[in-house]
Amino acid sequence: MKTEILRLDNFGRGITFYKDKICFIENTYPNEIIEFEITKETSKYYEGKAIKITKPSNNRVESKCKYSNICGGCSFQEYKYDEENKFKEDKIKSLVKTQLKQKNIVKKIEYDKDYFYRNKITLHGSNNNLGLYKNKTNEIINIDECNITNKRINAIIEKLKKYNDIKEVLVRTSNDEKQVIIDIKGKEQDYKELEEISDVLIINNKLITKNKSIITNIGSKKYYLSSNSFFQVNEFLTNKLFNKVLEYVKEIKPSNVLDLYCGTGSFGIYISEYANKIIGVDYNKSNIEDAIKNKELNNIKNIDFIADKVENIINKFDNYDLIIVDPPRSGLDKKTIEYMIKINPKYIIYISCDPNTLVRDLKLLNKEYIINEITPYNLFPKTYHVESVSVLERKSVEK
Ligand SMILES: C[S@@+](CC[C@H](N)C(=O)[O-])C[C@H]1O[C@@H](n2cnc3c(N)ncnc32)[C@H](O)[C@@H]1O
Question: Is residue 229 part of a domain?
Fold first, then answer.
C-alpha cells in the first residue's frame, strides 16, 4: 500500500490516514511517499511500518547509527537536526496555542551537540547479549556503541562486551568525562579490568572501589554523583539551561526559595548566591544524601534539604517568593498546584521534560499566574523528548 506522510505526531511518528482512521508510522517524515503495511489496529487508530520510502523527504539524512531502525530509542537519526529542533519548538508552540490560547510566549529553541552528548546509559543483558531494549519490548538489541552517548562510555561498552551474563549495567561519567561509575548486576566474575578504569565500581549492590560517588560539575558548581542519584544527562546543554534559570533568579532577587523535585540539589546550589534561604525537597534518599554533601562541597550555608514526597510536605511551607519546580514527566499533582497557589510566591520557574503535562499544569496555574515566557531546550537530541523552562509571575502583587 502507498501513502503520503502528512505531519509528525507528538512522539515524532509520521501521520497518515488509512481507511477511516489515523495511522502512525515510525521513521517516516512529512511529505514522504512510502509503501507500508499495517502492524496494529485498535478501534481508534492504526500503526504501520514503512517497507519502502518511494519519495524521501528533503529533510531525510543518512543515519549515523547502525541500529536506528531496530532499536527504536531514537526518532530522529534520519532527520535533519534543524528540522528536529523546529519540530520540538513547534510542538510546544502548538500546545501553548491550543491549550493555553496564548501566542508569542514560546522563545526560540536552544540546542547544542546532537551526537555523543549523554553522560549515562543503562544496558540490559542475557547470556552473551548486552544492549538496549527494543522500543516497547523486552527484546535486547545487542549494541557495541550508541552515538548519543559520550565517547568515554562507548569505550567502556567495548570492554563490557568481553563479559558474559551481565543482566544490567549502568555506566555514567562526570560531565568532563574524566570520572566513571560502573554499576553491574549479573554473574560474579573477575571484573579486574573494569576496576582499573572506573572510579566507582558496584557489583550486585556491593561497592568494590573506595568511593561510592564521582564529582561532576555544572558551570562553576560541583556535584557529588552516586549510581542511584538523578542527574541531568546532557553534558553540553545543561549548563545553558541552568544559566537561564540563574538569569531569572538574578532579576527576581528572591529572599526565600523552594526548590521542589530538587534531585541532588542542582538548581538550589546553582542559584545559592542570589537568595537568602533555599529549601530543596526530593523523595529519593540517595539524591538527598548527595545534595547534603553537595552543600558542603560548594561551601554553601543557606540551603537545607528534605527527603520526602513534595505532596506530603508542601502544605507546611509559607512565605516563599520563588518556587522552582522540576517534576518528572508526570508533572505536578493537583494538590501540589493548589498549595503552590496558596503559598502565593511572586514567581514560579517550572522546568519540564514533558510539554503535555506542562501545559496541563500551566492551565491551572494560569488562573493566578501570568506565563511570561517558555524557552524550549533540546536536551535529548535524536529522541522526541524536549525540555523547557517557563517563568510565571503572580497576577496580583498583593498577598
Ligand atoms: C526531573 S528530576 C529533577 C532533578 C533536579 N531538579 C535536577 O535538575 O537535577 C525529578 C526529580 O523529582 C524527584 N521526584 C519524583 N517524584 C517526586 C515526588 N512525588 N516528591 C518528591 N520528589 C520527587 C525524583 O527523585 C527526581 O530527582
Answer: no
